Amino acid sequence: MTSCKTEQKNDKTPTTENKKPNIVFIMSDDHAYQAISAYSDKLIKTPNIDRLANEGMLFNNASVTNSICAPSRAVILTGKHSHLNGKIDNLSAFDTTNVTFPQLLQNAGYQTAMFGKLHFGNNPKGFDEFKILPGQGNYYNPKFITQKGDTTINGYVTDITTDLALDWLKNRRDTEKPFLLMYLHKAPHRAWYPAEKYYKEYTKKTFPLPETLFDNYEGRVAAKTAEMNILKHMHLAYDNKIDQEVLKKLNIFDGMGRSETKRMTPEQRSRWDSVYNPIIADFEKRYPTMDDKQLMEWKYQRYLQDYLGTIASVDDNVGRMLDYLDEEKLSDNTVIIYTSDQGFYLGEHGWFDKRFMYDESFKTPLLIKWPNKITAGTTEDEMVQNLDFAQTFLEIAGVNAPDDMQGESLVPLLKGQKEKWDRDAVYYHYYEYPAEHAVKRHYGIATKEFKIIHFYHDIDTWEFYDRKKDPQEMHNLINDKNYADEIAEMKQKLKETREKYKDSETLDNQYIELYKDKKKRH
Ligand code: SGN
Ligand code: CA
To answer: Which Pfam family is one of those matched by this entry (predicted)?
Structure first.
């Protein structure tokens, strides 16, 4: 009797009203699928993120519609392409009159909370609670925007974001209601500052060089003029953490200084210096005799050490979240998603950053666990997009999606009902130009076999790739006579796809005019 009473009092016991699945949406910022061991363990082991693949589904062909931060988030929240939700780049404002899926879930009785990076320049609507980073946010001792004002929290951003999310789950969530938790990491965004444990470990590692590290961009006009080459455009101080005074001594003037070291407490700073100062001293000694190839390789290793070091913390913290959901017996009725706002170049084509429709930044990691619905350990090769998330979550919650959302619910794929999925092409459109990294505006479509891309604005060039024969996208076949039929078909399909999604040259031109003078960054 007594034990039975205790059980009834325990407010964590699922009630009949609590049958709708909870949704935990985990997203990191710039997390390349090449840096998740469920995809490839060449660079790093991510045992916690991999749990979602082992217990759920791994998508091999998930892509974004516009490979840059805030636009990707706007697509996710609205279920509409950039040209319709209006958030075409990181410079324009998010139009808060857009209807977002969290608002619809909140109206349907879901509790909603968001923690971490949003990057809109305005606060999210449809959330009972949010604690978000201003703009890009910081790694060390970050400031957060909350409903009660701004607050600075001492510590490391990835740990803090998790603490905030867990605090809400433990202490302020109404256990009678289903919930949507958006748990959004800043890491591994530039300028890649790992936590102490991991800069100690990762600065000792060396990584295999990508085959295309020394790409000369032959046949790809827009790739040639982009400014995201590790050798030429990555900063030795800002990115690779070399002291600017040392650079001056070496006659190197590369502008931007280190961003986060100034934010560290004296204790954090002296622990940081104890690891990075020997690296700086070693660089000072070796630099005078380095040729371009050696400098490229040195910068690549430094880049990956810090980038992957930040991911090791993300993985630990995802583990903390999954453990909590397991311990509280919430996992059985919770859909957990892990994704990134887009992919990233880890030296492929000699690059860092994203923006292009080439695979490393067009594709994004996607792992989903949904016990009793998804068969554990399955992989899915269908072409899905971040555009599909809103309708997926609405279907999971039993809420009708507005007619003007443009994605497809992934629920049939999650349940293994492939016959209900008939998409044969996905659409992409990138706008942020002129801007940092100088990636020209372009749009295109990808099928499983081919990709066609049109670069426009101050150029007018086309690219065509055979994705099966040339997965590294080194050979632009647009002028290859052997592919004339396939190119014509893809051009036609691109035209139809633009019409289907209501994109057009008129809109392209309007967006060029509208944001001509926009320089502001969020
Ligand atoms: C910053 C970075 C860029 C990066 C953009 C967009 N520069 O501007 O390298 O492409 O963010 O990233 S930095 O000098 O400020 O580090 S996004 O993920 O927010 O879209
Ligand atoms: Ca990003």
So the answer is: SGSH_C
Dump pLDDT digits (tens) for 28-53: 999 999 999 999 999 999 999 999 99
Which distant-in-sequence residues (6+ apart) come within 8 Å of 508 by Cβ?
Answer: 441, 443, 456
Q: What CATH number is associated with residue 480?
A: 3.30.1120.10
Over residues 129-156, mean pLDDT: 97
Residues 161 and 115 reside in one and the same domain? yes
Ligand 1 pocket at CB < 6 A:
29-30, 68-69, 90, 119, 136, 189-191, 353, 436-437
* Choice from 88, 90, 431 to test ligand 1 binding pocket (greatest atom count within 8 A of CB): 90
Q: Do 256 and 175 share a domain, yes or no?
A: no
Assess whether 157 and 56 both reside in one domain.
yes
Residue nearest to atom 16 of ligand 1 (CA): 190
Q: Which of 303, 328, 348 is the last residue of a domain?
A: 303
Q: Are 356 and 440 in contact (CB under 8 A)?
A: no
Q: Which two tokens stand for residue 384?
A: 């899905």
The pTM of the whole model exceeds 0.85: yes
Pocket test for ligand 1, best of 436, 518, 521 (most atoms within 8 A of CB): 436
Which helix (H) or strand (E) segment holds residue 23: the answer is strand 22-28
State the distance from the centre of ligand 2 to the C-alpha of 117, rounded, in angstroms: 10
d(CA 173, CA 334): 15
